[in-house]
Amino acid sequence: ETAVREDEEGRIIVHGGETDADMIRRRRKRLEQNDYAQRNRRVVRDMIRYVYVLIDCSRWVRDKDPVLPPGTKIEAVIGVLQEFVQEYYDQNPLSHLGFVLMKNGEAEILTQLSSSSKTHKLALQSVLEMVSSEGPNGGGEFSLQNGLEVAGRSLGHQPRHGSREVVIICGALSSCDPGNVLTETLP
Asked: Is the dihedral of CA 164, 155, 79, 168 positive or negative?
């Protein structure tokens, strides 16, 4: 049985039943208890990163650039990437990194996703040896679509709780792709 009466200040008080105001107060209290920000607790999302770096090893990066220090564009890129590997693991100790090479219109995984900086540095060093053995006329064309598909297939198997990212380092002005990159590449 619900009884309605008025208090000293003229507010209506309902006894015996739950009012809308009571339901709202109870809901706010429950949400407040679950709100991590108000309880001074920090929730960290995407703390683990899965990153593939796509490296252009086509004929376009084997040229000497007059602006860069002595050497070719790919030598400068590999030098910067070796520094990046160390910096990446210093800032993201739980994360994984991998490299994909793009040359001759194809893409191949140089290193799988891993948290070993030594493996990546040795693999990057082997890229310099490969490029010097092939000479300035090797490397063929750059294919962005193939690189994205190779990285996307591998990243698709990674857990959803981490962020999945692709970084592209490209020296070519155009891409030689088997289809339309915007519509046919994996999401």
From this structure: negative
Per-residue b or e along 28-58, where b marks 16 or more CB atoms closer than 10 Å to that residue's CB: eeeeeeeeeeeeeeeeeeeebbbbbbbbbbb
Query: CB–CB of 53/148 below 8 Å?
Result: no
Summarised one tens digit per residue, pLDDT across range 106-153 is 999 999 999 999 999 999 999 999 988 888 788 889 999 999 999 999
Other CB atoms within a 10 A radius of the CB of residue 82 amount to 16
CA–CA dist 83, 86 (Å, integer): 5
Q: Residue 41 forms beta bridges with which residues?
A: none
| DSSP-based three-state secondary structure for 8 | coil
pTM: 0.72
Between residues 185 and 9, the one the model is more confident about: 9
